[in-house]
Write a sequence for this structure.
């Protein structure tokens, strides 16, 4: 029986250095497909929908599925998902790579919300969507401003994220997303070969941790959070941030024109080129300085 793969694997390589050839094993980040299925409908007549396939790094798959459903607007509340389980009754080559989210019987599934998400790659989560309208999810109303930014806190975040990355230390080939509080304390970190998957895993972990009293909607504690991503801040990552009501997003890389436009519309403070002691603020125009 095929065993599900872990986050890393090995491959034999030839290393050439100063003309000398050495044979050794190299550690690689694992990339495997994950099929997300939905169970929905009344208890007496459950149906299954094959929602999406995403190329991901195995691990935290339940969080990935929950975050994906939430940021894509397929669910509005975590309580609308009864459970997320790995499917066992699949082909041998699919073991560990198929997951099913059981939706609450009272939730009416809108086909327009899932037909647009058939395939997502590890590099670009929107490539498989079937219409231009489907690319842009219905984000909530604009958020309240994040407020004063402390440069010393912000510039310290990438290094704190790197220090907590276990897979990156071994492979150097994986993205990360990390959630911090306003003071710079690391709350959640997830790694994945796809940056949009890493963000979905963080958001899935966040909403999955809410107590039952929190499940009536977005709660106040999230409004002080900062999301840091290891790569560029593309449109889809900004959209996920807005859906989760995270008011500040900081990226090591550059934003795109559309991500800046969407961040501005949604009231998101967007930071890019967060490297060393410098960063650029693209939207939000906050006060820069320490809190008094």
């Amino acid at each position: 029986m095929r065993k599900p793969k872990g986050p890393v694997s090995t491959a034999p390589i030839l290393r050439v250095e100063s003309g000398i050839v050495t044979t050794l094993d190299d550690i690689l980040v694992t990339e495997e497909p994950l099929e997300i299925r939905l169970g929905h409908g009344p208890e007496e007549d459950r149906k299954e929908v094959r929602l999406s396939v995403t190329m991901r790094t195995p691990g935290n798959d339940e969080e990935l599925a929950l975050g994906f459903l939430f940021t894509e607007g397929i669910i509005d509340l975590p309580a609308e998902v009864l459970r997320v389980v790995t499917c066992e009754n699949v082909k041998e080559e699919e073991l560990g790579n198929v997951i099913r989210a059981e939706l609450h019987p009272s939730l009416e599934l809108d086909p327009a919300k899932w037909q647009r998400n058939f395939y997502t790659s590890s590099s670009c989560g929107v490539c498989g969507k079937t219409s231009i309208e489907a690319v842009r999810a219905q984000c909530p109303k604009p958020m309240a401003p994040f407020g004063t930014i402390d440069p010393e806190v912000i510039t310290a975040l990438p290094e704190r994220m790197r220090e907590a990355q276990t897979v990156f230390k071994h492979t150097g080939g994986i993205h990360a997303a990390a959630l911090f509080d306003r003071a710079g304390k690391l709350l959640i970190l997830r790694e994945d070969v796809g940056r949009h998957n890493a963000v979905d895993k963080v958001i899935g972990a966040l909403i999955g941790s809410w107590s039952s009293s929190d499940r009536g909607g977005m709660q106040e504690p999230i409004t002080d959070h900062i999301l840091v991503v290891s790569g560029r801040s593309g449109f889809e990552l900004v959209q996920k941030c807005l859906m989760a009501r995270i008011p500040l997003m900081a990226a090591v890389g550059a934003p795109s024109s559309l991500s800046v436009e969407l961040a501005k519309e949604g009231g998101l403070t967007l930071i890019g080129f967060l490297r060393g002691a410098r960063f650029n603020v693209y939207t939000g125009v906050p006060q820069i300085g320490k809190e008094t």
Remarks:
- DSSP finds eight helices and 13 strands in the chain.
